[in-house]
Design brief:
Immunoglobulin-like, signal, 3-stranded mixed sheet, 4 helices, Carboxypeptidase regulatory-like domain-containing protein
């Protein structure tokens, strides 16, 4: 019996691992190209990092409350190389709750980082013309609500006869912490250009 239990445990563990899929781009990562794209120039990308809490079906409402990135939030800037193009394409195609797409350790090293200030602002200076990808994770606290039945009310006719009963609902509010990934592609076309963006 113990052998059967141990075997079942191993099978469930195997299935659990199999349920989590991991993908990596297969394109060649050109370190020289990435290093050259991140070398000094005279351009700037600056902006504000913010997000909105997701509503029903995980969609961010257009008019929802905006949450600015807390001070010290890391904003990453990657050069858009052929390797990165494949990574991004794979992430859009495959990534979900059971599948994750990663860059190689080498590719992940070739990036710049900036920290947000008290107002969610960030800045990347001394950039060359080229295409870049910016990404950050914005942590925030939001408020949700739900309704719960707290009683019933009865209705009667003019003769005192019972007609029907209706539920009474009360709305309760609660706070929760969440995090959204925000990203954007930005292209600098001329040396010395200043790009103002909203991430």
């Amino acid at each position: 019996m113990k052998k059967i239990s141990a075997l079942l445990l191993l099978v469930f563990a195997f299935l659990s691992v199999q349920a989590q899929n991991t993908y990596y781009p297969q394109a060649f990562f050109d370190k020289k190209m990435a290093r050259e794209m991140l070398s000094f120039g005279n351009s700037t990308i600056e902006g504000v990092a913010s997000t909105k809490q997701k509503g029903q079906f995980g969609i961010k409402p257009l008019l929802g409350a905006k949450h600015y990135a807390p001070k010290g939030t890391v904003v990453m800037l990657f050069p858009v190389t052929p390797y990165f193009d494949e990574f991004y394409s794979m992430r859009r195609k495959y990534e979900n709750k059971k599948t994750t797409v990663y860059m190689s350790e080498d590719a992940f090293k070739y990036k710049l980082e900036a920290l947000t200030d008290d107002y969610g602002r960030f800045k990347f200076e001394k950039l060359k013309p080229g295409k870049y990808y910016l990404e950050t994770i914005v942590n925030f606290t939001a408020t949700g609500s739900y309704q719960e039945q707290t009683g019933r009310t009865d209705s009667y006719n003019v003769y005192g006869g019972y007609l029907y009963s209706s539920p009474i609902y009360q709305t309760f509010f609660y706070g929760y912490s969440a995090a959204n990934r925000e990203s954007k592609f930005v292209e600098i076309k001329e040396d010395g250009e200043i790009k103002e963006i909203k991430l």
